[in-house]
Structure formats: structure tokens, C-alpha cells
Design a protein that fits this description.
The complex is a heterodimer of chains A (424) and B (442).
Chain A (H helix, E strand, L loop, with lengths): L10 E4 L5 E6 L5 E8 L7 H4 L3 H8 L9 H11 L2 E6 L4 E8 L3 H13 L5 H18 L3 H13 L14 H6 L2 H11 L6 E6 L3 H12 L21 E7 L6 E8 L8 H12 L1 H14 L6 E5 L7 E8 L4 H17 L4 H18 L3 H13 L10 H6 L3 H11 L4 E7 L6
Parallel strand pairs in A: 2-6, 7-11
Antiparallel strand pairs in A: 1-2, 3-5, 3-6, 4-5, 8-10, 8-11, 9-10
Chain B lengths: L20 E5 L5 E6 L5 E8 L13 H8 L11 H9 L2 E6 L4 E8 L4 H13 L4 H19 L2 H13 L13 H6 L2 H11 L5 E7 L3 H12 L22 E7 L6 E8 L7 H12 L17 H7 L4 E7 L7 E9 L5 H17 L4 H18 L3 H14 L4 H10 L3 H11 L5 E8 L3
Helix pairs in contact in B: 1-7, 3-8, 9-12, 9-15, 10-11, 11-15, 12-14
The chains are: A alpha+beta (424), B alpha+beta (442).
Chain lengths: 424, 442
């Protein structure tokens, strides 16, 4: 099996301004996929600026630049059939863009323009403010979102930025001024450690040239981000229930603060979580909560494992009267992994799953661009995926059990959102 | 590549075409469509059944979707959970879904293991176990899935508008099914439905990936060739009578944050020649959308509805769209209000834009922008084997197979006059159904 991402296929260049460029040819369709990852512009910086600032700023970048006002920018992008989105995630802000290969040069130029020279027009700020506030009000009525927000608040005490919703709060979005938004952009958008990936029906050397031409002379300082302290898992069970009127079903989330991607426990937990709540029809948790008990349409577990960690949790959507039973079943599955661990067969299946997953997921330019950006962001070598199969084969059952014992020693947070009257 | 012959001796594919689609029909009636594509070492294997909510009787709504769920429960050979383990081990991307017209199963998996998909799909076409206890557990799983939709105001409104837009055609029924039907459907009814529709002569296999057409056809024949055909499932003959005037529904309940407006206009069946100009009209209204997986969001900020509703700060979001369907369907316009904006204002703003597109010709430059977005979406959707296979299967099942290679050109040939004509024909007040969702304090 040949892995398309490897040192001899990827062209990687470090820019004098601190950015890194990665290019790869993928001729499966006549398109290009661009990703720009800015590691200091994500919601980690919201701790000082207020919840949702990073996302508000990111949304404003496509609302006007020095050369193109909002409508002209929209016409230019729509006229190419290009898709450009800038989204602030927890750990970084990412621009993801696609265009036909014939428009690669224009796409890169416009994306550079909107990252480097946004104008933050007052009228656009008010438009985006209204859109975000509406979407926050909609999310606040969504039990699954509210359960996840609540879980993060329980797991990450101040000043850890993960306790804040990336989407923001109505209070912060309502009050941010143009000056504050621009100050955030000036402080956090810059080429230091930025990752530029261009994959598609384009010669990699040409791709690198396009990126260099658009970003090489970007020379601004960026403010560092305070490294968060990883919290310990709760000693006991911390519970919170949020009632939302007019709902028919509840969502229940149960978890602990997870691990960082760089943690030695990463691969054992990655495989362990596949067995716990992902593989097949949502792993053991899916099997018990959905298949055996028939409690939920969805019941799964998720290991975030970002650069700075992130929650490791199980979540299910269940009828309000079944919340307690579902929570108990999910906690029991974590405990079983911590006790007897996976069977040899489950582990062998999980290993094969990862090897096959890599092959299946590396189809098309966007998927390759995404994995390249991930590889660079986490400081993995370009031959990481070539050696990936050997790495996962080395994980033993005991490694998984021990990792579960260290990372999920017993206590956890439990968050429920659902109709009024829902209780644990 | 040499020419491929089907069991009846017909030849479709020409030599030398790098993107040749090869079609064949087995003696038992199973249709097979293959596109050899070596851009990645994977195979995407799909089975499309011509059954969906459209085929359901009142009282049994949701039965197609429920049967789809049961096909993941296993067969005597695979055992309970065997399917999950098998595909999990291969790292496959696999799932199933049900629409108003079709029920679809797919696996995208490493090339070296692809025949497992053919083996499993052939097995579960006839041998799915409907264990009584599993049926009961699945009832609560599906009720929970329905609960998820009932938690979402826009899904609630969509269901109400569709139920009002069609008086007699089964497109009025939600694919998930009405809650009361889901509480009553029996195991015997599920089995009858399965036996009636899960037959090779009611199915199409679509395969895209790194295998030759010969190898693919040989393997499909080996796995499916022995399955007996069944009686032809009943045709859906229900025709929706003409609509004589606007219909309206208001949903008032707690659980929502802001008012929503949905406007549904009657449009012809997918194979109708007006579908292509309607796709362009829709892109003029709200931008190019993905026609398959792998398409991209984020287009349409220069579109008419975006300018008229979002840029004016009446709405937080606006979209339009339609899925070409076997029978005449609906083109939807959906609006999420900004806080404090009344639904009347949203409706008036939409109607003003529709009047403009009915009365005036769309300027060439704007038309070009719309078609370029659609062409780009088609290219994005063809980016990987799964997206390509979905699109190939969809156009095949809809009866518009020429679209697979010719839609980009057909879109470019649409004229401003045609766009205006389809706007005049289909975006009429008297053939629309309008729904409002008004959040209510508890």
C-alpha cells in the first residue's frame, strides 16, 4: 500500500518569516485545495479577549479588504466558483478554500489579501454581529450543543480557555468594538508558525511559488499564547443539568479532560477510544446504548487530543426518562476498558481499522490538504504516515488498559441538556 | 481497456475513454454501473434500491428507513454485529441512507479488500435477519432519531410545509415517518416491505474505483448472479393534482430562538428538461450548492437572496435549493430571521426578488457566475471515489445518466430567457406553500 503523503511527494519549504509551505500534487480532479492554519489566531486567545472574539474576527475577514469591498469580494469569489471559509477553532484559525485549478493563482492572491489586509467596515461588523447573535440563540436551544458546552465548563476551571464556548457568548459578541476586533487581528494574525498547504492539480514547485509570492513578504509579529495548565480529572462525579423548554429529547455527555496529541498515551488511547465508542456502529458504547438497550439513535465517544488536549467524552441523545440509564451504561464502558481492557480481537480490529482508514481517507485534494496541515501542526515528520501502520501495530492491550487507568481514573463530569423536568 | 459486454450482449463503453462508464444488466435484472478510476487505491461500492418514502402507504410511513436500519443487524452468515466488525476491521467508510425516492448502501474501502463489499451486499439483499427483539429495540432507536429532528425547529417546520404542499402524493410523508406510525409498524410489515423491494430486479449496483470494469462485472455477477428475481414492485401512480392557490401553515411552539420562514414551490420531476435551467435559477438566487458529497459550502454571498435578506440585516441566513426527484417535487427557500424581524418582512423581501427574476432577464455576467459555481461544485464533488460514485448512482437512478458527463456543458448553455421562463412558470404565488415557525414562550 502506497501512502501519498511522504517525504518524496511533498514539497516543504520554510519561509524566512517563520511560515511553512507544503505542496502536493493530486490530479484526481481539476481543482486545488488551499489551507492556511494560523496557530495563534484561534479561540485559545479568547481567554483575554472574551469568548467568541476569534470567531467574530475570522468571520469578518471575508467582509472587505483594502482592495475589495465586501460585495466585490463576494463577486470575485463566486465568479470563480471558489469556496472560501475562515473559521476560528479552539487551537487555531484556519482558512479553507477550493477553486478550479485554472483559478489557483487568483485564489491564493485573494486569500492572502483577506488575511493580510482586512478593513473591518463598521456596517459589516454590525451585520456579522447580528448573524452570530442569532446563531448563538439557536445553539442555546440545541440540547447537544448545550450538553457539550456544559461539560467543558465543568472540566476546565478558569483561566483555562477550553471552558469558554468557541462560538462565543451573547454578552461578549454584543459588546466587542471595532477597535477590539482589529486589535485581536493585529495581535494574532501573522506568519510565525503559520502553515500554508496547497494540494491539487498543480505542479508542487508552482504551488510553492504561488504561496511564496503571496505570503513571503508578510512580516508582522504575533502575540504568544499562554500555555494552559492541564486540569486533573474530577475526583468524584460532577453533575449539571440544563433545562431547555420545548424539547422532546435530552443529550447526555460524560467525560474527563483528555490528553495532548504529543502525549505518549496518545496512540493507546486513540485505539482504545475506537473500541470504546467509534469503531463499527459507535464501538462498545454504541453497542450497549443503541444496539442492546435501544436507548438512543446516537451514542459514541470522542477523543479530542489537540495540541493542548481537549475533552475526552461519551455522548448520547436519549428520551428524558432514560438519561440516568444511558449515563450509567457509558460510565460502565469506560470502567470496563479500565478493568479488563479490550480483547485481543478488538485490538487487532482497531489496528486494521486505522491502517485501512488511512488509505480510504486519503482520497482527493481536500483530505490530503487537511492531513498535511495536521501533520505539520502537530510536529509530525513527513514519513509519519508511511510508518503509521508499524506504530499502531506496536500498541498492546496492556498499554491501552494502563492509559485508561491514568487518564480516566474514576471521576468524571456529567452534563445533561433536555426538556424541562429532565433529571439524573 | 477491452470492451465490456453485459450478459445480454449489449455494449455501451467505447475504447480509450479514460472516464468510461460501463453498464450491464444481469439475467436476474440487477443493473450494474462501473467506472474504473485509479486516482486512489480505493473502491466505492454502492447498492441503490428503488424504494423510499414515496413507496409507503399511510400508516406505514418510515418503513423504508426502518428496513434500512435492519440491514445493519446482520444475516445468518455474518451474525449479529458481524457487519460492523467486518467493515471496521477494513477501515471502510460505510453507511446507508433513505430518501423519498431511494434507499442506498455504500462502502468505500481499500482496493485490495473491495470484494467483501459485494459479498456483504449480496448477502444482506436477501438474508437480513429480522429478529423480533432487534425490531423492538430499533423502534426506540428510530423514535430517538425522530426526537432529534423534533428538537430542531427547522425540521419541524419542513415537515409541516411538505405535508401541506402535497395533498395526495407520498412526498407529503417524512422519510423518518410519523411518530404514531413508528409506534405501530409490525415486524411482519417490515418483512413484507423487505421482501417486496429488496430484489436484484429493483436494485442497481454502482462501483467506482481502482479495478477494471471486467473484474468488477465478474465479481458482481459471482456474488449477485444467483439471487432470484422477485415480482416487480408496484409502481407509484399517485399524481398530485394541480394547486389552485397558495397554502399556508403557522407552527407556534417553544424550543426555537427566532422566527423561520420556509417557502416551497412546485417544480417538475428531475428528468424534465426544465430541471437544468432551474438549477441555474437556484444558483442565481442563493449560490451554487454541492450536487454530491465533497461539494463545498461558502458560496453565494453575491447571490440575490443573500443580498436582499442577509446584507440588509433582515435575516441571519437564507438558502434555497431542490433535490431533483422521480416525481414533481419542491424548490425550497428557507430564511432564519434576525432577532426582532417579522416573518412578513422576510416573505416580502423574498417575493420582491422572485418578482425581479420573473420579470427581468438575469445579466450575462451574473448568469456566468452562477454556472461557474455549479460547474465548480460538480468538480469538487468528483474529487474522490465516494463522491463520484454517489453522483453516478444518483443520475443513473433518476434517469438522467447523460448528466454525468454532459451537465457542465448543459448548464453553460442555459440562457437568461430560459431562467426567466422557468422563474415565471414555477415561482408562482398560487403554487407555493408557505410556513412560519414562531417561537413561543413556554
Amino acid at each position: 500500500m502506497e501512502i501519498p503523503i511522504r517525504p518524496d511527494t511533498v514539497l516543504r519549504r520554510t519561509l524566512p518569516n517563520g511560515g511553512v509551505v507544503l505542496a502536493l500534487r493530486d490530479a484526481s480532479s481539476p481543482t486545488v485545495s488551499l489551507r492556511v492554519l494560523l496557530p495563534y489566531a484561534g479561540a485559545m486567545a479568547d481567554e483575554q479577549a472574551g469568548a467568541g472574539t476569534a470567531r467574530f474576527v475570522a468571520a469578518l475577514l471575508i467582509r472587505g479588504t483594502e482592495r475589495l469591498e465586501a460585495e466585490a469580494l463576494a463577486e470575485a469569489l463566486d465568479g470563480m466558483g471558489a469556496s472560501v471559509q475562515v473559521t476560528a477553532g479552539r487551537e487555531a484559525t484556519e482558512l479553507t478554500a477550493r477553486a478550479l485549478a485554472e483559478d489557483a493563482e487568483r485564489l491564493v492572491a485573494i486569500c492572502a489579501e483577506l488575511l493580510r489586509n482586512p478593513t473591518f467596515p463598521e456596517a459589516e461588523i454590525e451585520r456579522v454581529r447580528g448573524e452570530i447573535i442569532t446563531s448563538l440563540r439557536v445553539l442555546a436551544k440545541d440540547p447537544r450543543t448545550v450538553a457539550q458546552w456544559t461539560l467543558c465548563r465543568l472540566l476546565y476551571p478558569p483561566p483555562h480557555p477550553f471552558r469558554l464556548p468557541v462560538e462565543g457568548t451573547e454578552e461578549v459578541i454584543g459588546r466587542l468594538s471595532r477597535e477590539e476586533l482589529m486589535a485581536f487581528w493585529r495581535a494574532h494574525y501573522g506568519p510565525k508558525d503559520a502553515i500554508f498547504v496547497l494540494v491539487g492539480d498543480l505542479d508542487p514547485a508552482r504551488a510553492v511559488d504561488l504561496i511564496c509570492g503571496a505570503f513571503e513578504d508578510w512580516r508582522v509579529e504575533v502575540a504568544p499564547i499562554a500555555e494552559p495548565q492541564d486540569p486533573a480529572p474530577p475526583a468524584g462525579v460532577e453533575r449539571e443539568v440544563v433545562a431547555i423548554e420545548g424539547k422532546v429529547q435530552a443529550d447526555v455527555a460524560l467525560g474527563v479532560p483528555g490528553i495532548r496529541r504529543s502525549d505518549p498515551d496518545y496512540l493507546p488511547l486513540r485505539l482504545g477510544n475506537l473500541i470504546l465508542g467509534e469503531m463499527g456502529l459507535m464501538g462498545r458504547i454504541g453497542d450497549v446504548v443503541r444496539e442492546q438497550k435501544g436507548l438512543a439513535y446516537y451514542a459514541l465517544s470522542h477523543l479530542t487530543a489537540g495540541k493542548w488536549g481537549g475533552p475526552w467524552y461519551a455522548i448520547a441523545g436519549v428520551p428524558p426518562e432514560k438519561v440516568g440509564e444511558a449515563a450509567e451504561a457509558m460510565a460502565e464502558e469506560f470502567a470496563r476498558m479500565r478493568g479488563e481492557g479490550p480483547s485481543e480481537q478488538e485490538l487487532a480490529d482497531a489496528v486494521q481499522n486505522r491502517i485501512g482508514w488511512l488509505q480510504v481517507s486519503l482520497s482527493g485534494a481536500p483530505a490530503k490538504a487537511q492531513l498535511l496541515a495536521y501533520t505539520e501542526f502537530h510536529g509530525l515528520e513527513l514519513d509519519y504516515w508511511v510508518r503509521f501502520a508499524d506504530r499502531v501495530r506496536q500498541v498492546r492491550r496492556e498499554d491501552i488498559v494502563e492509559a485508561f487507568r491514568r487518564r480516566f481514573p474514576g471521576g468524571y463530569a456529567l452534563a445533561v441538556a433536555g426538556p424541562e423536568g429532565v433529571a439524573l | 481497456m477491452s470492451r465490456a459486454r453485459d450478459a445480454q450482449g449489449d455494449v455501451w463503453a467505447d475504447e480509450g475513454d479514460p472516464m468510461e462508464v460501463v453498464r450491464s444488466t444481469l439475467p436476474n435484472g440487477l443493473r450494474v454501473v462501473v467506472l474504473s478510476d485509479r486516482s486512489a487505491p480505493v473502491v466505492s461500492f454502492w447498492v441503490w434500491y428503488r424504494v423510499g418514502a414515496r413507496d409507503e402507504r399511510p400508516g406505514q410511513t418510515g418503513i423504508s428507513h426502518w428496513v434500512e436500519h435492519m440491514l445493519f443487524k446482520g444475516t445468518p452468515r455474518l451474525g449479529r454485529g458481524g457487519l460492523d466488525r467486518l467493515f471496521a476491521r477494513l477501515g471502510a467508510r460505510w453507511n446507508g441512507f433513505t430518501t423519498a425516492d431511494f434507499t442506498v448502501y455504500f462502502e468505500t474501502l481499500p482496493q485490495s479488500t473491495w470484494e467483501v463489499a459485494a459479498e456483504v451486499e449480496a448477502d444482506r439483499m436477501r438474508n437480513t435477519v429480522f429478529d423480533p427483539e432487534e425490531v423492538e429495540r430499533e423502534r426506540t432507536v428510530i423514535l430517538s432519531e425522530r426526537g432529534m429532528y423534533e428538537n430542531d425547529p427547522s425540521s419541524v417546520l419542513h415537515e409541516e410545509v411538505a405535508a401541506l404542499a402535497f395533498k395526495v402524493h407520498p412526498y407529503r410523508q417524512p422519510v423518518i415517518g410519523w411518530r404514531t406510525d413508528l409506534q405501530r409498524i409490525t415486524r411482519e410489515e417490515l418483512l413484507d416491505h423487505y421482501h417486496a423491494y429488496y430484489r436484484p430486479n429493483n436494485a442497481t449496483v454502482v462501483l467506482v474505483g481502482a479495478v477494471s470494469a471486467e473484474e468488477a462485472l465478474r465479481a458482481v455477477e459471482a456474488h449477485f448472479g444467483g439471487i432470484e428475481p422477485g415480482e416487480r414492485p408496484p409502481e407509484v401512480r399517485i399524481e398530485e393534482p394541480p394547486q389552485g392557490g397558495e397554502r399556508r401553515v403557522v407552527v407556534e411552539r417553544p424550543g426555537g430562538a427566532v422566527p423561520l420562514v420556509q417557502m416551497a414551490y412546485r417544480v417538475p420531476a428531475g428528468p424534465h428538461p426544465d430541471t437544468v435551467p432551474l438549477l441555474v435559477l437556484d444558483a442565481v438566487l442563493s449560490g451554487g450548492k454541492p450536487l454530491s458529497w465533497g461539494g463545498s459550502g461558502g458560496m453565494g454571498r453575491s447571490s440575490r437572496l443573500y443580498r436582499a435578506l442577509v446584507r440588509t440585516r433582515l435575516a441571519a441566513a437564507v438558502s434555497s435549493g431542490f433535490t431533483p426527484s422521480l416525481d414533481p417535487g419542491l424548490l425550497w427557500i428557507s430564511v432564519t430571521a434576525q432577532p426582532g424581524v417579522k416573518p412578513e418582512s422576510l416573505e416580502a423581501a423574498v417575493e420582491a426578488e422572485l418578482a425581479r427574476v420573473r420579470e427581468e432577464l438575469v445579466p450575462e455576467e451574473e448568469l456566468h457566475r452562477a454556472t461557474k459555481q455549479l460547474r465548480a461544485q460538480l468538480a469538487y464533488g468528483a474529487d474522490d471515489a465516494s463522491g463520484r460514485a454517489l453522483w453516478l448512482g444518483f443520475v443513473e437512478m433518476l434517469g438522467v445518466r447523460a448528466w454525468f458527463s454532459e451537465l457542465p456543458r448543459a448548464l453553460e448553455q442555459v440562457t437568461p430567457e430560459e431562467v426567466r421562463r422557468v422563474a415565471q412558470t414555477y415561482l408562482q404565488r398560487k403554487t407555493r406553500t408557505v410556513g412560519w415557525y414562531l417561537p413561543e414562550a413556554a
